[in-house]
Amino acid sequence: MIPINRESKTSVHFGMNFLIAGTWGHEKGALLNFQKGLLDAGLEFSQTGTRPTGFTLVRSEPSPLQITLETTNPQIHTLQIISGNPQYDLEMFGRDVEAVTGAYQKTWPMPQYQILNTSGCIRHLYSAKVHAFQYLWEQRLGQAPQDFQMLGNRPVAGGGLRLLIPPHQQAGGEPTSIEIRIESFMRETQKLFVETVFTWPRPRVVVEQAGFESLARLNEIESFAANEIWNFIVRQTP
Predict the structure, then answer these.
(1) Residue 107's domain spans which residues?
(2) For strand 160-168 and strand 112-128, is the pairing parallel, antiparallel, or unpaired?
(3) Are 182 and 161 in contact (CB under 8 A)?
(4) Integer angstrom CA distances of residue 200 from 18, 178, 208
(5) Number of C-beta neighbours around residue 2 at 10 A
(6) pLDDT of the residue at 169
(7) Number of domains the chain contains
(8) Please, which of 9, 33, 132, 147 could form a disulfide with 184 given CB 3.0 to 4.6 Å?
(9) Rounded distance, CA 192 to CA 131, Å?
(10) CA atoms of 64 and 13, how far apart (whole Å)
């Protein structure tokens, strides 16, 4: 019997990040126009933090959401949208991301946008009937608990796996690199923490009338986490 409860999956982080060529413009009133565009899309933020290279907008309700627009060098900037401890599902977050990128395009209109790369991150927690690292070490990896005596007979409170999959391309898709973390959750050791990060490194051009294709990419990450990574965790052939 598998001691990890698949039905207990809880999403604890959603994130999308766009690395965009060019400058976003620091003209007077641009931030206010951006906030107005967000408000027109139904997104209201209670906190604003500005700095010479960018700004951050934060809200706490109805679900946490943070937007950061930052110049990383004179010719590149990043647009990051994250929700820590989200109180809604992935589809709603994806809609918020699309609303943010839509407001960005309206505030800084261009005939086309060159996105140098796109990345997304989803983090999940699963409940376990045993210590999550004990499961990973002894059952999934088939290792002996006595091995830790070689570390000076010190107690090991937790641990996990980190996997890096270099950029690869499947039929009909873009090259994608994947980073995976599977480890015991330190605050609650009977929970398994799973982080899935997809990066699409190929530059792409988005014309003014098109969106940034955020929701489809988030769904791709979620599907991989819920199927391929789950099968890997429980050593189950699909």
Answers:
(1) 4-234
(2) unpaired
(3) yes
(4) 10, 9, 20
(5) 13
(6) 82
(7) 1
(8) 132
(9) 9
(10) 10
pLDDT at 101: 96
User: Per the structure block, which two tokens stand in for 4?
Assistant: 């990890």
Find tokens 């139904």 and name the residue: 42
Residues 107-141: pLDDT tens digits? Answer: 999 999 999 999 999 999 999 999 999 999 999 99
For β-strands 112-128 and 204-207, DSSP reports them as antiparallel
Q: How many helices (H) and strands (E) does the chain have?
A: 5, 10
Backbone angle region of 103, left / alpha / beta, with phi > 0 → left and psi within -120 to 50 → alpha: alpha
Amino acid sitting at position 133: F
Residue 109: cis peptide before it, omega within 30 degrees of 0: no
Place of tokens 């261009």: 110
**Tokens matching residue 12:** 């604890």
Residue 167 has pLDDT above 90, yes or no: yes
- Residue 206 backbone dihedrals phi, psi, to 5 degrees: -115, 120
Q: Is 16 within 8 Å of 119 (Cβ atoms)?
A: yes
